[in-house]
Amino acid sequence: MDTTPVADSRPARRLRGLLRRTARSYSAGHDRPLGGYLVAMAGFAAYTAAWTTAVRLRGRPLPERPEPWDVVLTSVATFRLSRLLSKASVTSPLRAPFTRYVGPQGPAELHEEAQPQQGRHTVGELATCPFCMSVWVASALTAGRLLWPRATRTAMGTLTALAGADALQLAYGALLDRTTGDRPADPASRSRRAADRP
Asked: CB of 94 within 8 A of CB of 127?
């Protein structure tokens, strides 16, 4: 009786060898976590399939075409929630297991790098990349609009108002800088300016 594990079969070894050669050839000497990216893509496929299944089970009809207002609202809400999840100081505990703190980056945002360990690197890249995060967020908000339209639109309206408030805060700060040459509300820039003085 053959007790050889399935994972050690000749086709499995060939496939692993092919994947290793492909990764080596693709990476050109750089450390690229292709296996982690494959897992992330599979995770996103499962995530999307779960939302699709939930929408189908609820029997919600898909709209013929997206309404322009919904596209704008979803875009702004996706932008704000993606940055909140991937860059905000307050959400850093969620990213901490997969990232390393580097320093501040903009108002109330952090610059973090993915931890180098193979299992954490891909998640760290996803967790610190607002562009990557926006794919997941936009999918969730779109599914939410189909499943719970009123609650989701209310949440997206709140996120859009927050994005507008952020833009106004930055515009106010720039106007203050322009008119007075100093931003009293920004202690970090004050201390840098003080250190630069002779």
From this structure: yes
